[in-house]
Amino acid sequence: MTGLFGGRRAVYHAGTMSLPVVAIVGRPNVGKSSLLNRLVGRRIAIVDPTPGITRDRVSAPLPISEPGGKDSPGKYVELVDTGGMGVEDADDLTGRVEGQIAYALASAAMILFVVDAREGLTPLDRHVAERLRRQDKPVVLVANKFDSDQQLAEIHELYSLGFGEPMAVSAAQGKGIAPVLDAIRERLASAADVPSEPVMKLAIVGKRNAGKSTFINALAGEQRVIVSEKPGTTRDSVDVTVNVGGRSFMLIDTAGMRKGQKHEGGLDFYTHHRAMRAIRRADVVAMLIDASLPVSKVDKNLAGEIALQFKPVVLVVNKWDLARSAAAGEDYAEYLAKMFPELSFAPISLTVATEGTNVSETIRLAEQLFEQANTRVPTGRLNEEFERIKAQRGPSHKPGTRPPKILYVSQIGTAPPTIVCFVNDVASFDASYQRFILNQLRERLPFAEVPIRLLLRPRRADEGHGKAAGKKGTRK
């Protein structure tokens, strides 16, 4: 048994990113995440007054020069946010947070050292400075939360850190950001060209402790995100770009879903919001399921969210080594079909992320789903297949009513494949017959394992192919 249900085989070789890294470091709660968000112009990292929110390295590409045309796309660096140096993690993950910081420093071409202008110099700032002096890399000192000239005394005190004149900024208000960008440009004039757009964005989702971060580390070939047996280790959505066979893929690690999670505000709100946003912006979703536990309400709710977004999904049954002695893969596939009827078309991958088993195969399978979701079928072939579908089984109708007819069919979109049927009477095409059409389309067209959006639009037979009067659709 290969552990994969569906999908084609392919062979790729791993590569690495080439963008120069600019690491943002400092003690806890000085505004590192706010600075990253302000520099890239969108909310990438969670901002919260609670120290220690950031644990993993959160990164985003940052343009540092304007494009000059097709042959001069501009220059980019990779901006990396890190956890606070010296924080005592409440979940006993201090060593692993420090490990992520050390990795960011080792890979950095330049460092933004952030301090709090309101609080002035602290012993922990001096500790961070001592550590950075050992890196022998360009360091720019950024005094964040600078709100008024009354803080100039605290700013001057920062000269003693030995990194030259501090740059006074307010990331929250957007003040003083342009000089920081100029400093990056000056020190990294040889920055890489614009990074190639990822071939596919793959969101890794699932309930807490299903093995999402382990899965990403196995594929990235490094300790890219923190892994712990403690549930809830990942708090933010972390984008990790990997190159496979010269093709760039973005993996989105998300916070684990949990039963009874509150969303009114605070950290729970942000983690849930980021996970849902990751699903929306992904091309394909890998939903991790813990094979050692029964499918839960959390799993079912997550499956429903994915179905509502019409996202292609691989059902990744992780920790398969703990379950394969109790059930065969085919039996587990039948079990999942019953638990997730709305995703009955989705392929299944049986993985052991801690050993790397079927991890690479899963991304290849996801790529096949990406290709299916972006396929466009010619109108002629589509109408030919619908004639065959109607010949096999036509829609039922009540005596005395007009026989329902499908007059014309066209694919109007991809990702998801969106098919519109112009019909004489929408009400005659009930949910049962629409499900029949969707199942037939998966059998006859290259959409076997992805969601299809089906729209029904009423039109009189004598209108030709003009504008429709309305619409009704179904999702599967």
Task: Describe the model.
The protein is of the alpha/beta class and 476 residues long. The protein folds into three domains: 4-11 and 196-373, Rossmann fold, CATH 3.40.50; 18-193, Rossmann fold; 379-475, K homology (KH) domain (GMP Synthetase, Chain A, domain 3, 2-Layer Sandwich), CATH 3.30.300. 30% of the residues lie in helices and 21% in strands. It has twelve helices and 19 strands. The protein has helices spanning 32-40, 94-107, 123-133, 152-157, 177-187, 212-220, 266-281, 297-308, 329-339, 359-373, 379-392, 431-444, and strands at residues 4-5, 14-15, 21-25, 58-63, 75-81, 108-116, 139-144, 167-168, 192-193, 200-206, 238-244, 247-253, 284-290, 313-318, 348-350, 406-413, 418-423, 453-458, 472-475. An eight-stranded mixed beta sheet has the order 1-15-14-13-10-12-11-2, sandwiched between helices. Strands 3, 4, 5, 6, 7, 8 and 9 form a seven-stranded mixed beta sheet that branches. The protein is elongated, with a radius of gyration of 26 Å. The chain starts with a strand and ends with a strand. The relative contact order is 0.11.
Task: Give a summary of the structure in a few sentences.
This protein has helices at 32-40, 94-107, 123-133, 152-157, 177-187, 212-220, 266-281, 297-308, 329-339, 359-373, 379-392, 431-444; strands spanning 4-5, 14-15, 21-25, 58-63, 75-81, 108-116, 139-144, 167-168, 192-193, 200-206, 238-244, 247-253, 284-290, 313-318, 348-350, 406-413, 418-423, 453-458, 472-475. With 476 residues, it is α/β, with parallel strands linked by helices.
